[in-house]
Amino acid sequence: MKIDEKSNYSEQLQPNPAKIGQQMDLNEVEAFSPWKDTWRQLRKNRFATTGAMVILFFILLGLLAPFITAYPYAEQNLVERLKPPSAEHWLGTDHLGRDIFTRIAYGARISLQVGFFAVTGALVFGTLLGVIAGYFGRWIDMIISRIFDILLAFPSILLAISVVAILGASLQNALIAIAIINIPIFGRLVRSRVISLREEEYIMAARAQGMKNGRILFHHILPNSIAPIIVQSTLGFGTAILEAAALGFLGLGAQPPTPEWGKMLAESRDFIQLAPWTLIAPGISIMLVVLGFNLIGDGLRDALDPKMKN
Amino acid sequence: MAAYISRRLLMLIPVLIGMTLITFSIVHLIPGNPAQTILGESATETAIKNLEESMGLNKPYPIQYSIYVTDLLQGDLGTSLRSKAPISKEIWPYIAATFELTLFAMIFAVVIGVNAGIISAWKQNSWFDFLAMLVALIGVSMPIFWLALMEQWIFAQELGWLPAYGRQNNRDPMEAITHFYVLDAMLHLDFSRIIGILKHLILPSIALGTIPMAIIARMTRSSMLEVMKSDYIRTVRAKGAGQFLVIYKHALKNAMIPVLTVIGLQTGVLLGGAILTETIFSWPGIGRYIYEAINYRDYPVIQSGILVVAFIFVIINLIVDLLYTYIDPRVKY
């Protein structure tokens, strides 16, 4: 890691060939910022930029859904049922004659929202619990860590199903379930990061200066833990979308006529031989969005965590 | 080592207690009256009273919980509301079905994943490396239930090569002995049946094994690349060993340590995660058992099913942890 940083500095400190022989003006040397460096690396990473473009495409598709689709997403038209892709219906129609492109576009809104809120929920609660456990240690850490252990003792989809079995099947409850199963993942990550930072000299220095716990946590420890959290959030976004689709597919998430992609797959299952396009479009949409987030996440990890660089 | 094992076992106790608290709460956190929810809107007062009586729902929570745990410790997993049979009696065939499916899915994942990872590391930055890692990336991004549906469509319905549903030809069922059907068919010495059962296993195993395969391939590749950089490999090379020998005899041993952990953990994940695959392929496993119980609001089955899976999951993780210290003596606790 040190070597990498040094090489970056030295690159920037290279004298401008045009000015060789003149005295170098140190003010012209661009200040080194880890964020700028990350951004530069991310832009160079072709996989990550592809991922970002895929996500951007689906964000636009969701945002512009009312303007680029010609049909309401729940409008049934039985005369037009199970029609293959055509000029009127770009991706064909489903068993109730609903336009699949329209439903995919509105579905993008749902999936991205579920991903966003589930990850945000898990992030907020996980980080909070992780910071408390890691920073204060002792019995607080003991209790919080055991709660994480217990939540992680359940395979994630089963835990989500338990939560939905309690709360009832709906998109909102699926979202809550996904947030809950992701809390310990963020929590453990933050906790271990905080524990390693707690012993750093600059934290000791801050404490010696008489800084309060809250200030140390929010001004020094959390900002230094942000990199792994960003990576996990990006990867978690994809997982959350997959989990929501799985719950939707099992009938434990979004309810009809919501155009949730997993639910669309479940509804079209019986028509797979007659009208395969009804299953191909939602499946590929889920895959592309998740792939997009995975590509960005991998790129971010490479850029933010120099230890992973090969 | 002994101290580590006992500490690891002690840490299991709060986790197990927590697990029972969660499964216990499944019934009690249902909004409104649980008995009413279980029986539906049209249930009569007496029916609700009777159910509350039989499930012990009319007692205070601490007493209910202590009864629940006492029953569990005696191996009593409750009674299914749907089949009226004791769950501990009827659950075994489902567990066996899931174990068998998981085993074959893991064989698929390990054989393909480890070898793809090794070749990728060996031929780093070649077209094979690129392609394998692309497939692995798609593998972890794909909804497995969609992959399962596509497999069913192409290989079962369009091409007709493989059966789309179930564990065996249901028109000619076999007398189950262990409920591991491949083993049972072997015990019956019925070779055509073994082939039939293996054919039923192919599609669901691939669907279930794809995600672990992708994870194992990526892990093997990065672990292998790491090991190949180490000094002892340079020494082996300096001695004049060929690339094949370097990789399979010397590098693989150390590179496999983190991969083995992933394999263990993924086995646990599959056991619980099989619910989607089992639903699509009508595989009578534990996931499907739980899923059907949800549709019938058979809460005792939901509770016990989830508890059993979580228990197996925890035990597998424990074994993985302990094996890790055994395989890699450099890890000191």
Any overview of this molecule?
- The complex is a heterodimer of chains A (310) and B (333).
- Chain A has helices at residues 2-13, 34-44, 46-63, 65-68, 100-136, 138-152, 156-167, 171-198, 201-208, 213-249, 261-268, 277-304.
- Residues 1-10 of chain A have low confidence and may be disordered.
- Chain A contains 12 helices and no strands.
- With 310 residues, chain A is mainly alpha-helical.
- Chain B folds into 2 domains: 2-89, no CATH class; 93-332, MetI-like fold.
- Chain B contains 15 helices and no strands.
- Chain B has helices spanning 2-28, 34-39, 45-55, 61-73, 87-90, 92-122, 127-141, 144-158, 181-187, 191-228, 231-238, 243-273, 275-280, 286-295, 299-327.
- In chain B, helix 6 packs antiparallel against helix 7 (127-141) and helix 8 packs across helix 10 (191-228).
- Chain B is globular.
- Chain A binds chain B through residues 146-147, 149-150, 153-158, 161-162, 165-168, 238, 242, 245-246, 249-252, 262, 265, 269, 272-273, 276, 279, 282-283, 286-287, 290-291, 294-295, 298, 310, and chain B through 11, 14-15, 18-19, 22-23, 25-26, 29-31, 137-138, 140-143, 145-146, 149-150, 152-153, 157-158, 222, 225, 268-269, 271-273, 275-276, 279, 290-291, 294-295, 299, 302, 306, 309-310, 313-314, 317.
Keywords:
heterodimer, A: 310 residues, mainly alpha, globular, B: 333 residues, MetI-like fold, 15 helices
